UniProtKB/TrEMBL annotation:
This is Sulfotransferase. Coiled coil: none annotated. It comes from Vigna mungo. Residues 56-288 form the Sulfotransferase domain. It comes from the Eukaryota. SUPFAM superfamilies: P-loop containing nucleoside triphosphate hydrolases. Its EC number is 2.8.2.-. It is an enzyme of class 2 (transferase). Keywords: Transferase.
Length: 350
């Protein structure tokens, strides 16, 4: 009886929310200002109300297709290197990174179990404002966020979601998908507000949120791995560096190593996601879309938003202006690097 009542309440909530077609899931609902897959709204709601973060918890947060799998593998290897000192018998050789670092949203579907060994390491695509209070303000847990060139995200997401889409969804044409993407309509979108939410918190609380760029990891993974370890409170000793422990972790977690691992070539996680689809190219600048210039006028929380997207050959520039809360974001993608500049001015402060 209680289950039927709960289901009725869920249906009532869904009926009141704006709905759009998803990329991999038939329906996306605008839930708490982000486009949540219909199969996860109930789980996100339970996550917010019931999850109790521990002081030692670590969260790997990201927008989908931003380097999540790679960062999960690196983070797990860093904090567990004393438990699994032998690379030859490492759990990453027998388990997918998403099994070792479960997505909290899927824990409440019963698809994965909560880690029992501390520090517990979780993954999440939930935007920062929608995280439980126990994570945001009631504990000293750590969050690592990774962002990526939004055009690489688009290409990767378009290909990936088409492979895992549920029936009876048809394939999205790339032009249609790009228009949806620029309007923020994608699983856990809009992507710009997702980035901004974690970026602002990393500026306000740098000891709690570490903001990383996928492109920086690709360019100097040794430096970034050491930075992650320092942030998490698991710094590498000089002895470990001399013994090339960092190099071993980097090799173990490399895209090539994980893609070629037998454990990632077959099998399913979360009941419907094939492991092999998590590994495609892992490259930067994998987008080659000539769409000229796109201008959009959007409404977010009653604030006027202007988004300008310019793509010319190998260079792109994105400008996002929110006129009420005064947020300015400029993202420039060059041949070998990505530059993110963001200014957030709080009213009443100079």
């Amino acid at each position: 009886m209680e289950g039927q009542r709960a289901n009725a309440e869920d249906e009532l909530i869904l009926s009141s929310l704006p709905r759009e077609r998803g990329w991999a899931i038939p329906d996306l609902f605008l839930f708490q200002e982000f486009w949540c897959p219909s199969i996860l709204i109930k789980e996100v709601n339970i996550f917010q109300k019931q999850f109790q973060a521990k002081e030692s918890d670590i969260f790997v947060a990201s927008f989908p297709k931003s380097g999540t799998t790679w960062l999960k593998a690196i983070t797990f290897s860093i904090v567990n290197r004393q438990r699994f000192s032998s690379i030859d018998n490492h759990p990453l050789l027998t388990s997918n990174p998403h099994q070792l670092v479960p997505a909290v949203e899927f824990m409440y579907r019963g698809d994965v179990h909560c880690p029992t060994t501390e520090p517990r390491v979780f993954g999440t695509h939930t935007p920062f404002p929608s995280l439980p209070n126990s994570i945001i303000g009631q504990s000293n847990c750590k969050i690592i966020y990774i962002c990526r060139n939004p055009f690489d995200i688009f290409v990767s997401a378009w290909i990936y979601f088409d492979k895992i889409k549920l029936e009876p969804l048809s394939t999205l044409k790339i032009e249609e998908a790009f228009e949806m993407y620029c309007n923020g309509i994608i699983e856990f979108g809009p992507w710009w507000s997702h980035i901004l939410g974690y970026w602002k918190e990393s500026m306000a609380k740098p000891s709690k949120v570490l903001f990383l760029k996928y492109e920086d990891l690709k360019e100097d993974v040794n430096f970034e791995v050491k930075k992650i370890a320092d942030f998490l409170g698991f710094p590498f000793t000089q002895e470990e560096e001399n013994k090339e422990v960092i190099a071993s972790i980097i090799k173990l977690c490399s895209f090539e190593k994980m893609k070629d691992s037998e454990v990632n070539k077959s099998g399913i996680i979360y009941q419907f996601l094939e492991k092999k689809y998590f590994f495609r190219k892992g490259e930067t600048r994998d987008w080659k879309i000539n769409v000229g210039k796109v201008k959009l006028e959007l409404e977010i929380r009653g604030e006027r938003v202007k988004l300008e997207l310019q793509i010319h050959g190998g260079r792109a520039k994105l400008k996002l202006h929110i006129y009420n809360g005064r947020v300015e974001l400029e993202l420039e993608i060059h041949r070998r690097r990505i530059e993110l500049n963001c200014r957030y001015v709080v009213k009443g402060l100079s």
